[in-house]
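[job 4471] stage=fold_predict status=RUNNING
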Amino acid sequence: MDNLKALYQQTTSRIKLSKAINQKAWQSYKQVYDLNENLLSENPMEWFVVHIYLALLEQVISSKQVTKMNTSVTVSLLLNISKMHCKEFITKLKYTMEQKLSSPLTEDIVNELVRNYILTAALHDKFSKVFANIFVEEPSMSHDPSHDQTRPNYHQLLLEKRKQIWLLYLLAKEETSFDTSELITSFYVLICCFIPAIKSTPAFLLKSPWGSLCDNLNNDQTEVHLALMKKLCSDYKVDLGEVLGPIFLSNQWRSLMEKYEGVSFHTMTKEWANVVRPLTIDGLDFIEAAPLVIPSNATSAVGAAALPPTPIQFRLNTIQHLKNILSGFTDSPSLTLMQYFQCCGENPHGSISTRLSELKERYTSTPLCHHSPTSSHSGSASHSGIASPQGILLHRFSLITRLYYKSLQNLLQQEEERLSRTDFSALLYIDTFHRSLVLCSALVVNHAYDEQVSASEVLQHFLAVFDLQAYHMCKVIECFIKAEPDLSGASIHHLKVCEDHILDNLAWKLDSPLYDVLNFTCTGGTGSLPVLSDSPTCNVGAAQFLTPIRRTRDRAVTENGQASNSRSLTVFVTKVCRLAYHRLQLLSSALSLPSDLVCKIWTCLEHLIKVKCELLKDRHLDQAIMCCLYAICKVVNREVKFKAIVGAYETLPHQPSSSVSL
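[job 4471] inference complete, writing structure tokens
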């Protein structure tokens, strides 16, 4: 340990640390060292910088100055001192946090660090490809107008041009409110940064047709910029409307261009030094080709999770697929849909349009959901809750509206085929039905643009934005998927994950309308669900909103028309049971429990869901599963420690929610 202490002091001598931080980091290292001496004895300097980083971060959090980090230490500095690659730093950082049981706020900030690293690495990879497709790396002498003089260093010129574009992008992230926490919006900002660089580069340093494009339109600067932007968007399958108005022609972008027009790379670097945040990975390291930051193609970017080979292209393809399935639909109802409206006793078109206008206003005036727990800690303009430019939000709500009308039309056509009628007045005047369809459409569109945010976060965000309860939303998800068979597999999976979050957690919140339905359905005031004579074979959204299940005795109907024994409740409980049984099987398998014991546990769990469902109020389904498992094992004298149950639970593939209190 004395040798390690000496090496630690040697390491910290290269970093300006206070005595308190120095001591705290050393104590933290010793704490984890005692848990795994062999691991922390290997490459100790790498472990030192990890604990130094955590000590600095925890001090900042405890002083409640997360947005004003009073330290000059960056991740890049720590990597250079330890000669450790960024992916190894992140792996060791996460391991240390698990051993130390770090606070949720610390975990949030580290997760944001990891996400920003992956996003920046993906963008830099795409940036390098775009640059290579536009600029000539080795111009020939025949194209050099000064070939009879001492030849300029074109390689150095292009290198500076490359750095200027990347640095302009980094500054744009910090100095504008464009939502660059989202991969696709970041790419839009990045391609905008190419325009001034292309325009100011001699034609012989540009590949065809970029040089001729600038020469042919040299008289009109605006025309040149638009032509270059159209070419870039065309080459990389980007919707021009998503880039031009919201970003490139915005006042923010014009102000940024005026500020840095003609500014040298050296001056821009000084400007960047004033805005780069401590305890983060310096984005400038990517353009400097720092070997400790650039991910290798042969290795993963973070631990065992490999960086997607072409993440931006994948995202662009996903967006294009969504637009393809919406071709032929507009922001207004189709003729087919209008015919359904006209068949109603009272045309619902007016109320539908009014509702959409309200939801549009709420959507466009609310920031998009991007890792809200950490957004307030990063100190960045792009992560500080500033809304995306309204043009981007308006464009996306246009896609949401088109998908909503398309799914509504498909649902009504399915209902017409099922019921052989065209008057759906009752259904089309149910407010929660329409809000649920709009929310499903919003989930699909949001996921097409950004799949980094967890399903639980984005679902709760949109439930709040559209003023909808999760229980009502759950009635529509499955029929929405059936009505849209052309949705991508990733979108369908995302919707199903959202449904699982409703079933296991959100529908059981204290203010959930589920309890109003239960109050009319439960018998004898015991909180138990009655045995139903009909099985819930029909899962169509309209049936769940409208159709009661007949029993041997007629049940009363509530004032708002809700049948006391509704099909929606039966379908909901059936889905909860299926989800609970599936997770119980996974957990039991992880604990190697015999099948006869699993059957007994399931009997207890099913009884809890159907008879003692009040125990789930404001709780998570997974809590009930673990408690039933532990209780039955106790009853049959099977030795299973609750700590072992929790450990097995944390390995389950459905990524347990951090909101589950254990």
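[job 4471] summary: The mean pLDDT is 81.
[job 4471] exit 0
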